[in-house]
Amino acid sequence: MRLQARRLVMLLVGLLVSPALWAKWAVNMPEGVTDLSHSIYGLHMTIFWITVAIGVLVFAVMFWSVIFHRKSRGAKASEFHESTLVEILWTSIPFAILVVMAIPATKTLIEVYDADDADIDIKVTGYQWKWQYEYLGEDVSFFSNLSTSRDEINNSRPKNENYLLEVDEPLVVPIGKKIRFLVTGADVIHSWWVPELAVKKDAIPGFINESWTKINTPGIYRGQCAELCGKDHGFMPIVVDARPMDEYQEWLEGKRAEAEKIKELTQKDWTMDELMTRGEEVYTKVCVACHQANGQGIPPMFPPLKGNAIAVDRDKIGRHIEVLLYGVKGTAMQAFKDQLSEVDMAAVITYERNAWGNNTKEVVTPRDILDYKKDGKYTGQYSSEGGK
Amino acid sequence: MKLNPAQKTIVKAAITAVAMFAFVFWVMVPLYNVLCKVTGLNGKTDPEPYTSVPAAVDESRLITVQFLATNNKGMNWDFKPSVHQVKIHPGEIGSLSFYVRNPSDKDMVGQAIPSVSPFEATDFLHKTECFCFTSQPLEARGEKTMPLKIIVDQDLPKHIKKLTLSYTLFDITALDKRNGNKKRTAGL
Amino acid sequence: MSEHHHGPAKGLMRWVLTTNHKDIGSLYLWFSFAMFLLGGAMAMVIRAELFQPGLQIVQPEFFNQMTTMHGLIMVFGAVMPAFVGLANWMIPMMIGAPDMALPRMNNWSFWILPFAFALLVSTLFMEGGGPNFGWTFYAPLSTDYGPPSTTFFIFAVHMMGISSIMGAINVIATILNLRAPGMTLMKMPLFVWTWLVTAYLLIAVMPVLAGAVTMMLMDIHFGTSFFNAGGGGDPVLFQHVFWFFGHPEVYIMILPAFGIVSAIIPAFARKPLFGYTSMVYAVASIAFLSFIVWAHHMFTVGIPLVGEVFFMYATMLIAVPTGVKVFNWVATMFKGSLTFETPMLFAVAFVVLFTIGGFSGLMLSIAPADFQYHDTYFVVAHFHYVLVPGAIFAIFAGVYYWLPKWTGHMYDTALSKVHFWMSFIGMNLTFFPMHFVGLAGMPRRIPDYNMQFADFNMISSVGGFMFGVTQLLFLFIVIKCVRTGDKAEAKPWEGAHGLEWMVPSPAPYHTFSTPPEVK
Question: Closest by alpha carbon to C274, among A87, A70, A85, A76?
Answer without folding.
Answer: A87
